[in-house]
Amino acid sequence: DGKYTVSLIEGDGIGPEISQSVKDIYKAANVPIKWHSIDVTPVIKDGRTVIPDEAIESITRNYVALKGPLATPIGKGHVSLNLTLRRTFNLFANVRPCKSIQGYKTPYDNVDTVLIRENTEGEYSGIEHVVVDGVVQSIKLITRQACERVLRYAFQYARDVGRTKVRAVHKATIMKMSDGLFLSIAREISKDYPDIEFDAELLDNTCLKVVTDPTPYNDKVLVMPNLYGDILSDMCAGLIGGLGLTPSGNIGDECSIFEAVHGSAPDIAGKGLANPTALLLSSIMMLQHMGLNEHAEKIQTAIFKVLAEGKTITGDLGGKAKTAEYAEAVIKAL
Ligand code: IPM
Ligand code: MN
């Protein structure tokens, strides 16, 4: 029927409410997408925590998924489901743009950063052990293969979106071997992209500079190991108003999962108060990834219009609108 099917992981807490907004807006905008809702609640198979087969099949078949927040248990005995998804599908690059929202005042104007995070290894490898009582080791695993593919992706991404510079963010002065490897591979790969300027910056310095004046980063793609990207992307999100406004895409060779980075907000779940903007903007990245650029443009313009007017915005942005009222305003603005 000429429609694409997209797997939808509604998620926990506010997930179903914000997913509903996406579905309503997409329907009103006649986006040629059918949603296939899947449950990724892990099952134990041979003593390992795995995603149910039906969910894996759905995402594999559809190539793209949109994902709401999944609660991450802290402590022993649980593997984060978010991480399991990234690893199961080998989603090696996590793309996190942060662009100022017109009409939403923060101490910074004109922020437009793009950060690409290695998404499968580093401190997230999950290799930890007790050496002796009171002494533990957490392994930061870095492989040439994972560095190469995320770095190549970053250069290609810069070229595709018309950014002229790629900057590797690292701490090779201290993590001499792991970040050193990342950095030397970055230098190697930069030779294949003579049209893109390459340089490197120490992570602590990037933090200082980004919060002092983010605008010099507006022509760059920042690329970095996993944990640095986790932390620095929240910092960049803070420049534009927080995780309620920032999208992300987990990109792999076989499939990609677009997700809101924020949590499941159990305190407001079910109350119709949540802001669906981050999930909506993630879905816009998804539409662009699928080549549905006209629909992406149309919905994004409507979202930005409603946010700029500031009349029908949710509580986190200082407004009084309920989730559904905000979605309705976006539909009217289409
Ligand atoms: C993110 C989140 C995840 C991460 C958590 C939920 C496991 O903070 O997507 O940035 O640490 O990567
Ligand atoms: Mn994070």
UniProtKB/TrEMBL annotation:
Coiled coil: none annotated. Its cofactor is Mn(2+); Mg(2+). Gene3D superfamilies: Isopropylmalate Dehydrogenase. Keywords: Magnesium, Metal-binding, NAD, Oxidoreductase, Transit peptide. Its EC number is 1.1.1.41. It is an enzyme of class 1 (oxidoreductase). InterPro entries: IsoCit/isopropylmalate_DH_CS, Isocitrate_DH_NAD, IsoPropMal-DH-like_dom. Residues 5-330 form the Isopropylmalate dehydrogenase-like domain. GO terms for cellular component: mitochondrion. GO terms for biological process: isocitrate metabolic process; tricarboxylic acid cycle. One of its GO terms (molecular function) is magnesium ion binding. It catalyses: D-threo-isocitrate + NAD(+) = 2-oxoglutarate + CO2 + NADH. PANTHER family: DECARBOXYLATING DEHYDROGENASES-ISOCITRATE, ISOPROPYLMALATE, TARTRATE, ISOCITRATE DEHYDROGENASE [NAD] SUBUNIT ALPHA, MITOCHONDRIAL. Octamer of two non-identical subunits IDH1 and IDH2. Belongs to the isocitrate and isopropylmalate dehydrogenases family. This is Isocitrate dehydrogenase [NAD] subunit 2, mitochondrial.
